[in-house]
Specification:
4 helices, alpha/beta, 17% strand, seven-stranded mixed β-sheet
């Protein structure tokens, strides 16, 4: 079934001997087929991450939102779940966690998520629920934020500095 496939894919990635960090997307969440519940899917997709040193979690994200510092490079990687419990949704705590913990750094921030909270950037997706507090938090670090997303299945970027459109560099990639 689906979990066996996920376990196989996790193990193949781990066989490479390098850490990998996963941002959950709408094709990962299983909401269309309802083969397994979402919490089981979260555990399957993120089960390897706690074994990496230096991971810091949003405690209300069921292990799907976290950050890790790469001090040697001056980078903080932040991974957010834009499919929290349903399609196109941040958890209710994501914005607060960003403001009080994850964004409290002077490092360059590499934000990885499936969709951007700025809905005009997401082709064929409705606006994310609970996005306003996330956007507000990210605007405070927009000069040192690079966002990487993947939902649109094509490569493009935004970087005009307009707070209503693209207040930070965003790259969509397949």
């Amino acid at each position: 079934g689906r979990l066996e496939i996920e376990d196989y894919m996790n193990n193949r990635m781990l066989d490479l001997g390098k850490p990998y960090y996963r941002a959950i997307g709408n094709h990962d969440t299983n909401v269309y087929a309802s083969l397994i519940d979402i919490r089981t899917m979260y555990r399957a997709y993120c089960s390897h991450i706690p074994f990496y040193p230096g991971i810091n979690y949003n405690p209300d994200s069921e292990g799907t939102e976290y950050y890790k510092d790469f001090g040697k490079y001056g980078i903080r990687l932040i991974v957010l779940n834009t499919m929290y419990g349903d399609l196109f949704r941040f958890s209710e705590s994501t914005g607060k966690w960003l403001k009080t913990d994850a964004l409290n750094t002077d490092k360059l921030i590499l934000l990885c998520e499936h969709l951007s909270p700025v809905h005009t950037m997401n082709m064929n997706a409705k606006p994310l629920e609970n996005r306003e507090e996330v956007i507000d938090a990210l605007k405070g670090v927009k000069d040192r934020l690079i966002q990487i997303c993947g939902h649109s299945h094509c490569d493009y970027s935004f970087s005009d500095g307009d707070d209503n459109y693209s207040p930070w560099l965003t790259v969509f990639t397949t």
